[in-house]
TrEMBL record, chain A:
Domain (Na+/H+ antiporter MnhB subunit-related protein) ranges: 811-927
Parts of the chain that traverse the membrane: 6-24, 36-54, 74-99, 111-127, 133-151, 163-185, 205-230, 267-286, 298-319, 325-346, 367-386, 406-427, 448-471, 491-517, 567-586, 598-617, 624-643, 649-668, 689-708, 750-767, 813-831, 837-857, 869-890, 910-933
GO cellular component, one term: plasma membrane
Subcellular location: Cell membrane; Membrane
Domain NADH:quinone oxidoreductase/Mrp antiporter transmembrane, residue spans: 128-400
Phylogenetic classification of the source organism: Bacteria, Bacillati, Actinomycetota, Actinomycetes, Micrococcales
Keyword annotations: Cell membrane, Membrane, Transmembrane, Transmembrane helix, Transport
Official protein name in the record: Multisubunit sodium/proton antiporter MrpA subunit /multisubunit sodium/proton antiporter MrpB subunit
All residue ranges annotated as the MrpA C-terminal/MbhE domain in the record: 689-768
Membrane topology field: Multi-pass membrane protein
All copies of domain MrpA C-terminal/MbhD, residue ranges: 608-672
Record region (Disordered): 958-998
UniProtKB/TrEMBL annotation, chain B:
Organism for this UniProt entry: Marihabitans asiaticum
Stored PANTHER family: NA(+)_H(+) ANTIPORTER SUBUNIT D1, NADH DEHYDROGENASE
Annotated Gene Ontology cellular component terms: plasma membrane
Keywords assigned: Cell membrane, Membrane, Transmembrane, Transmembrane helix
Lineage: Bacteria, Bacillati, Actinomycetota, Actinomycetes, Micrococcales
Protein name per UniProt: Multisubunit sodium/proton antiporter MrpD subunit
Length: 998, 505
């Protein structure tokens, strides 16, 4: 049928989450009442649908949701869903009502909010008919339980983290299972997945999923070895524990196992994992529960053991066993929620949960005593409680354990042993908290609401057991869903079902248990609460520390600021890939031989010289020598290019080389003259470096040999050659490629080049003057100029050494003549670029040569041009270049598409405007570099000379009287108390700088 | 002039504004231009995403030259999605930089604009050499931004960043040259399928991919990334985290899908590397003891995850990888900006100098908590869907690869949970904080002083991180809206015919 009521209920619960903060604002801790009513309202809303479900007609609803996975927001109520939703809602309502009295005064928003969110997630989980939705709700319950524990104060922090870790691990198991299922079956619909024949056909896949789902459920349901988090979670307040243990998180695990049972109950791994894990958990839980001193911890361990019973029954997988599991889930939800709330009552009355310190409460609180006795009777399996019935069913189920009679007997025996333990710790709860107390602590009154709410689920169990037939359809429907098909014969529950083996075992359990409880004082030394195994904090802490050591190792290996280590790794990786690749493709090389005429004698000369130069760079001890060798490499490259017949590229290369060397020289004057000593690092390092160099050299050579020069001219090249001159009306193919065909590349490189000047200003602005131009006393690399004593101040010799300007006179004279010539050459190169070697870039480099000459010809380190001129050249260059592109877009319909026109007997093209942008940008960069780096050094510059920092500031601000000596160009005393950087503005020694618009 | 012809404006406008803001000294104007640009890119990308529902690919040759000669600018759903995600994260980071005053450092605005131009160009271009150019356009401002803000170590680390990236750019350029050497073209569409048909071209393109792998930070060539990023300021780190590795990953996705049709013979090696990257990133997080160093390794782990999408190369895995990428950008921005706000106020991001901020800064704590949940893939955040889709995709890998990849995701997740729990406990729980470090205008370093009670993170500094985590939560809630887009983007990668035809038409 159409189950519109399902999304409606979920939406209502979602709405409840949303309005809870408002409710708590209005009602404070009393918010539990309306929220409980709302829970019951939702339950009532679902009741008609539940009725139909119990009649055997599942209620479904679905909407498309997550197309990437073909996942839909599908809800489906079947027997299991109804039972678990009812538990979540009804127990939730009781707990909320209880909380109104338990909680202290105050808004308690986080508690109520998380509880409603928790219920929302839980109901979503049990009604989900889609793996994605199921997983989502599963994670939400993990998160909600974590937050509920974490909100309980400092002591709960560690416990909440461990809870999150373990349930998070479970979430990952489930996620892996979901991934495996979706990858295999291609659907996320849960019922389609469960109905699939693949579970029988592919045992390996079924085993994988069984193990993953089983482990996921184990983490949630606190099965060994993941049980450690549940006792830990005791740090949370009692209502949270009651809900967690009875209705929510741990039941989510049980639910998951029941949900997947139709698919997996015949998988051996599933049976083994669940039966062994479950029974082991029952024993471990029971054993630790017996030994606990803290009432609440005892109760937590009892949950572990009870869940173990259920898990084992699910693992048995027969329909009787599944019915028993469902029945015990219901019974456990009832008695455990009540008992936990009773722990809260005892805690409230006695002010302690230590069994040795609780006074004798029985006389003062008879009603509470009765409730506690009934609850424990149910847990211990004493007739006529519901717990008795469910335990009988469980024992019967263990007898059916697959794998032969022996397995059944062993399981039954272990189950019985677990039940004896249950009996014993139940006895401890009753007698320890109410009867045996000797302490004379004051007994405080406890709110009747708390006792009433705690009693409610326990007392309900009594008539339910007597008239257990009413559960027939419910348990039947749930079992049907867990079996995944119609039942062999209908479930019929009754308190008395004749003299069966289980009955005798039960009698035996009660007898042995009663004997042990009667002699409980002799057990006292055994009950010391000590842990026999290391607790979860220790184990998880050890795992974390171990991982941290691995992590430290992994991170430490690369913790170096020096680039060499990182570059070595990268270079080695590149070389290995390239060399390996060339070896792999060697067979293809024969098919594509090298083109003719590749080798000429001249190449060998260049090769040898260049190799020597590179070697020179590598072995030079002084920076100057290294720079010279580097320039040698550049010049040789120019020669090689020229020899290949590309004058345009060669010219560019030559100019770039010269100007680069000038800039490097400017930088060198600020650096120590020598490099560090490479031998300092030791012989093996040196060898490793040489080895890496040789390896990368060989790799690059092999790559070049294998991957280039083995094909005729490409189509693109032919197009450039044939169509280029026609299309662009320019004869210089290099230029037309640069400014027309691939102008976008040029635009990008122009931006890079020009903005490099801006980047230099930006970085230098962030450094204080004393670091940029350290005084000689602080500069450990400072080399004092040699003292040259010369007599006769006016002599030529004296002037030649001590006065700079006479030395520069010849150069200045030369500049006066050369500069105009260079300007003309520059303009000419620019002009003719389209047809002959030249163009904006080369022309700009020639223009830069003027700048370089002018800089070299000055006697003092003087700024060239107005301080902000470079910025205008840079910004203007970029703007002009982009503008020419936009012109093309507007006029011709494509960005950077050139326009051509004939005028004045000349061919004009808009790409010349673009070229102008290039020209300005490059010139601006060079001017900026020379201005910023060409400053004086030393303690006090001569009059008229400037500090680097001052130049930097002036490049941005215009003329200044001195450097603005701040780290970030802001002033600290401007806004005392406020953090610097918030209102950053520039300061120059107390005088705020001129800024446009201020 | 068609709509496709307007694509270069996504580069031209930021570039022009970069030129303009170099000239303008008025901060308000520069900051406004930056914000306007980013909003414009964001809006354009959303329009593009909508448009690609009917027109899967928009392509145009820049300069109006014939296809194959012109540099193509191409946009499909993937490109538009990347534009949207990167511009969103950049916008939030820019807002943060404005709030903290970092945009007032000289030329931060033009440098960020240039970075944006480079990112957009790298995402839109369909040409390998042009990709190299735009990666350079991204790198140049990054050199400056890295060394401009942050602590004293930024300069030494700046050298590391510059050297590594310069060498790597050279490798990238050599790779592009090899591609031209073997195939005679560097147009990605023209190279379609050539990686498989011709082993030499395959090798040449592999060189390009190796260079991109270094940029992306894949183990074992990741080392420079967690070393350099944390040395700069949180804002700049957030910018880099959202842009650099992600653009490289985008390029890897694109090139691998078009040139190799997603079936290179050597992909098994990358499968192992992806798994190792995810786990090494997670485990290295445990070895660090500052917020941003931990985040840097989480980035490495994220790179491993994202890479899984492309190595498995099924519809689900590609969608998973892309969703994870989007999620990771947004989550990382939220975490770095909020962590940055903490650092900015309390003067440190070291675990041992921060403590008990949960009570002091509940808002920041909430944002960080959600961010950490997102990183480990828990609700109510985008991380859940990213991890879910990715792991489903990984399970579709053949044979041992599925086991390895799913195992790596699970292992990395659990280790990340442990590591981030430690981070959380150290910073937000523990004893109350007694001292903090104020900022010092002259030295940037200062001694600890008693922490007064009224020191709090200003709300405006928390706003950008909050907005980003809100986006993450919105993705969690509205996955139904985002999922078709991711699906379309993945489909465009899985079958690149439409891309190739649109470019070479």
């Amino acid at each position: 049928m159409n189950g519109g009521v399902l999304p409606f209920s979920i939406a209502l619960l979602g709405l409840l989450v949303a309005v809870t903060p408002l409710v708590t604002r209005l009602l404070g801790r009393a918010s539990g009442w309306p929220l409980a009513a709302a829970y019951l309202g939702v339950a009532a809303l679902l009741a008609p649908a539940a009725g139909r479900v119990l009649d055997g007609e599942p209620v479904t609803w679905s909407r498309a949701w997550f197309p990437a996975l073909d996942s839909s927001f599908a809800l489906r109520a079947d027997g299991l869903g109804v039972v678990f939703a009812a538990i979540a809602l009804v127990i939730g309502a009781v707990v909320l009502a209880y909380a109104t009295s338990y909680l202290g005064e105050g808004r308690q928003t986080s508690f109520y909010w998380l509880m409603t969110a928790f219920t929302f997630a839980m109901v979503g989980l049990v009604l989900a008919d889609d793996l994605v939705l199921l997983f989502l709700c599963w994670e939400l319950t993990s998160l909600a339980s974590f937050l509920l524990i974490a909100r309980s104060g400092t002591s709960a922090e560690g416990a909440s983290m461990r809870t999150l870790l373990i349930t998070g691990l479970g979430g990952l198991f489930l996620l892996a299972a979901v991934a495996a299922i979706v990858a295999r079956l291609g659907t996320t619909s849960l019922h389609e997945v469960l109905d699939s024949p693949v579970w029988a056909e592919d045992p390996a896949f079924a085993t994988l999923v069984a193990v993953l789902v089983g482990l996921a459920a184990f983490t949630k349901s606190a099965q060994v070895p993941f049980h450690v988090w549940l006792p830990d979670a005791m740090a949370a307040i009692t209502p949270v524990s009651a809900y967690l243990h009875a209705a929510a998180v741990v039941k989510a695990g049980i639910f998951l196992m029941l949900r997947f049972s139709p698919a997996l109950h015949d998988v051996v791994a599933w049976n083994v994992l669940l039966v062994v894990g479950g029974l082991l958990t029952a024993l471990v839980g029971g054993f630790t529960a017996i030994r606990q001193q803290d009432l609440k911890k005892l109760m937590a361990c009892s949950t572990v053991s009870q869940l173990g019973f259920i898990t084992a029954a699910i693992g048995v997988g027969t329909y009787h066993a599944l019915a028993a599991a469902v029945l015990h889930t219901i019974a456990h939800a009832l008695f455990k929620s009540g008992l936990f709330m009773m722990v809260g009552v005892v805690d409230g009355a006695a002010g302690t949960r230590e069994l040795t310190r609780i006074p004798r409460l029985v006389s003062q609180m008879p009603v509470s005593f009765a409730v506690m006795v009934l609850g424990c009777a149910s847990m211990a399996g004493i007739p006529p409680m519901l717990g008795f019935l469910s335990k009988e069913e469980l024992l019967a189920a263990y007898g059916e354990t697959p794998g032969g009679q022996l397995a059944g007997v062993v399981a039954l025996a272990v189950g019985a042993l677990g039940a004896v333990m249950t009996f014993v710790y139940c006895g401890r709860v009753v007698f320890g908290s109410f009867v045996d107390g000797t302490s004379d602590r004051e007994i405080k009154p406890v709110s009747p609401v708390m006792i009433g709410m705690a009693a409610l689920p326990i007392v309900v169990g009594l008539p339910l057991a007597l008239a257990v037939g009413v559960l027939d359809t419910t348990v039947g429907a749930a079992t049907q869903a867990a079996v995944g098909g119609p039942l062999e014969d209908p479930i019929h529950l009754a308190l008395w079902h004749g003299f069966t083996l289980e009955l005798f075992i039960s009698v035996g359990i009660i007898a042995v248990g009663a004997l042990l409880v009667a002699n409980r004082r002799r057990l006292t030394p055994f009950v010391d609460g000590r842990r026999l195994a290391p607790d979860s904090a220790t184990v998880i802490g050890a795992i974390r520390d171990g991982l941290a050591r691995v992590g430290d190792l992994a991170a430490r290996g690369v913790r170096a600021d020096h680039p060499s280590r990182h570059v070595s790794i990268n270079t080695a990786a590149v070389s290995v890939v390239l060399l390996g690749g060339v070896i792999a493709v060697r067979d293809d090389l024969a098919a594509q031989p090298l083109q003719d005429n590749l080798m000429r004698p001249f190449d060998a000369v260049v090769l040898v010289l260049m190799a020597l130069s590179v070697l020179g760079v590598a072995v030079s001890r002084t920076r100057l020598a290294a720079t010279l060798c580097l320039s040698g490499v550049g010049i040789l490259a120019t020669a090689q290019i020229m020899a290949l017949g590309a004058p345009d590229v060669g010219l560019t290369q030559l100019l770039v080389e010269s100007l680069t060397i000038i800039v490097i020289m400017l930088v060198l004057q600020k650096l120590p003259t020598t490099f560090g000593n490479p031998r300092r690092d030791g012989h093996s390092r040196l060898l490793a470096r040489i080895g890496l160099s040789v390896l990368s050299g060989v790799a690059m050579a092999a790559g070049t040999w294998a991957l280039t020069s083995r094909r005729p001219r490409s189509d693109v090249a032919m197009y450039y050659l044939e169509e280029g001159p026609v299309e662009t009306e320019g004869a210089n193919i290099v230029n037309t490629i640069l400014v027309e065909f691939r102008a976008l590349d040029t635009l990008g490189e122009l931006a890079v080049l020009a903005m490099a000047g801006v980047a230099v200003v930006a970085v230098l602005s962030s450094l204080r003057h004393e670091y940029l131009d350290p005084p000689p006393a602080k500069n450990r690399w400072y080399v004092k100029p040699p003292e040259v004593t010369l007599t006769g101040k006016g002599t030529t010799a004296y002037r030649a050494i001590h006065r700079t300007w006479p030395n520069t006179v010849p150069l200045q004279l030369m500049v006066r003549f050369a500069a105009p010539v260079l300007v003309v050459i520059s303009a000419y190169l620019f002009w003719r670029g389209h047809n002959a070697p030249g163009g904006g870039f080369i022309a700009a480099l020639v223009g830069s040569a003027i700048v370089a000459l002018m800089y070299l010809s000055t006697s003092r380190d003087r700024q060239l041009g107005r301080p902000r001129l470079p910025l205008f050249l840079i910004g203007g260059g970029i703007l002009i270049a982009v503008a020419s592109g936009l012109w093309g877009l507007l006029a011709k319909g494509s960005f950077l598409e050139p326009l051509h026109a004939e005028a004045l007997g000349q061919h004009w093209t808009s790409s010349m405007v673009f070229d102008l942008g290039v020209y300005l940008g490059v010139l601006g960069l060079f001017l900026m570099t020379v201005n910023l780096l060409g400053t004086s050094e030393g303690e006090a510059p001569a009059p008229g000379e400037e500090w680097t920092r001052e130049r930097v500031d002036e490049a941005f601000e215009g003329e200044l009287p001195g450097p603005m000596d701040t780290v970030r160009g802001e002033r600290a005393d401007d806004h005392p108390g406020s953090r610097v950087g918030v209102r950053t503005h520039h300061v120059s020694q107390g005088v705020p700088p001129r800024e446009v618009g201020r | 002039m068609s709509a496709a012809d307007l694509l270069p404006l996504l580069v031209a406008v930021p570039l022009a504004f970069a030129g303009l803001t170099v000239l303008l000294r008025r901060h308000v104007v520069g900051a406004s231009l930056l914000v306007v640009t980013l909003v414009g890119v964001l809006v354009t990308s959303v329009v593009l995403i909508a448009r690609h529902a009917s027109t899967p690919v928009l392509a145009s040759g820049v300069g109006g030259y014939p296809a194959g000669v012109a540099i193509p600018f191409v946009s499909d759903t993937l490109t538009a999605l990347m534009l949207a995600v990167t511009s969103l994260a950049t916008l939030a980071t820019t807002a943060w930089l404005i709030m903290t005053g970092e945009t007032r450092y000289r030329f931060v605005v033009p440098l960020v604009l240039l970075l944006v131009a480079g990112v957009n160009g790298a995402l839109l271009t369909g040409d390998l050499f042009n990709l190299f150019v735009f990666i350079e356009v991204m790198l140049l401002p990054s050199y400056a931004l890295l060394a401009l803000t942050g602590g004293w170590r930024r300069l030494g680390v700046g050298r590391l960043f510059v050297v590594v990236n310069l060498v790597n750019s050279a490798v990238l350029l050599i790779g592009v040259a090899f591609v031209y050497g073997t195939a005679g073209t560097v147009n990605i569409a023209a190279l379609a399928g050539r990686g498989v048909q011709d082993d030499r071209t395959g090798l040449a393109v592999a060189m390009v991919l190796v260079a991109l792998a270094v940029k992306a930070g894949i183990v074992p060539v990741h080392t420079w990334l967690p070393r350099s990023y944390p040395a700069t300021s949180p804002g700049v780190m957030s910018l880099f985290a959202a842009l650099h590795t992600k653009v490289a990953l985008y390029a890897i996705y694109r090139i691998y899908s078009v040139v190799y049709d997603g079936q290179a013979s050597w992909i098994g090696i990358v499968v192992v590397l992806a798994a190792v990257t995810a786990v090494v990133g997670a485990v290295s997080t445990l070895g660090e003891s500052t917020f941003r160093h931990a985040m840097a390794y989480q980035m490495v782990a994220g790179v491993g995850h994202i890479l899984i999408g492309v190595v498995v190369f099924t519809q689900a895995s590609l969608a998973g990888g892309l969703l994870y990428l989007a999620h990771h950008v947004i989550t990382m921005a939220a975490l770095l900006l909020t962590g940055g706000a903490i650092e900015h106020t309390y003067g440190s991001h070291r675990f041992d100098r921060l403590s008990r901020l949960m009570t002091r800064e509940p808002w920041a704590a909430t944002v960080v908590a959600l961010g950490l949940l997102s990183l480990v893939g828990l609700p109510p955040t985008s991380g859940l869907w990213g991890k879910l889709l990715l792991i489903v995709g990984a399970a579709e890998a053949p044979g041992w690869q599925a086991w390895l990849l799913v195992g790596a995701i699970v292992l990395a997740s659990i280790i990340s949970i442990i590591a981030l729990q430690r981070l959380w406990s150290e910073i937000f729980w523990g004893p109350s904080m007694e001292t903090y470090r104020t900022d010092n205008a002259r030295t940037r370093i200062s001694e600890p002083v008693p922490l007064p009670d009224d020191v709090r993170i200003p709300a405006r500094m928390l706003a950008p991180g909050t907005a980003m985590i809100a986006v993450s939560v919105a993705i969690f809630v509205g996955i139904g809206l985002l999922s078709p887009v991711v699906d379309r983007a993945a489909a465009g990668l899985g079958d690149s015919t439409a891309y190739v035809e649109a470019v070479l038409r």
